Amino acid sequence: MDFSGLIDNFGPLTVTGLAQGAIIALFALGYTLVYGVLRLINFAHSEVFLLGTYACLFAWGLFGLDQNSAAPAVGPMLLYMVVGLVAAIIVSGAAALTVEFVAYRPLRRRNAPPLAFLITAIGASLFISEVVGVATHRNQTGVPPIIQARPVFTIGDTTVTNLQILIVLLALVMMFALDRFINGSRLGRGVRAVAQNPDSAALMGVNKSRVIALVFLLGGLMAGIAAVMYDLKIGVTRYDAGFLLGIDAFTAAVLGGIGNLRGALLGGLLLGVLQNYAAGLFGSQWLHAASFVLLVVILLFRPTGLLGESLGRARA
Fold it and tell me: What is the pTM of this model?
């Protein structure tokens, strides 16, 4: 264990962890939304994210951008960011809806057992991942330098870059917007009603199928935004990019309280920071193992997660 390395790099590890945790939190929202309504773990959500990472690359490629392009000026950079976000949101949202319509809805109509949903989710995940792997020849794809990471301010020996600030702020804004939508809008009340009691909600005129499609769509939108931030931060993507990050996002959702939107944000930020601390203390090879150790410890004392409040009981 390298305590001196952890202490010496405490600030940089914290800032980097917050940026990574913000991406995990956005990713985790898809898991927590679907589980909150269906009590289903949508393992295909990691591939919804994966498609978003390629969608923005395709959109940027239409402008002739690749990993060897020069960093654009502020005006073009803003345009490329908007185009990339729109492309990723559309593709990830459409992918999430397609998974719901093709894989899950037929099972719900037949009242299939939970195991059938689990197997279907894993099958859909593997199918999408393998299709992308064949299409890309299983090679890494570089990301154009849309945003050049530049120092904005320094605290002690910790430098905070514009990209890190953008990632964290965007995650907080999207989390706040989604929380307000779920707790303050008519559609959001329908989501909470179905999450709390689907049969009673149906008697009150809530269309369960539309609500389920809505939560898949919302989860896909959040995954698309997370995908763009992931591309900009990591700089490459590949056919299995969603796998490990998907495990981290699922861990974050359970850690914060699966089915709880605010818990997903808390779990993601906490997990990102603690993973970095573990990497600084034990080495980077222990980064993902540490997240599961943390999950087990938390669940021993808080079986419902840190916040532990279900989507159906969320308060405005």
Answer: 0.93
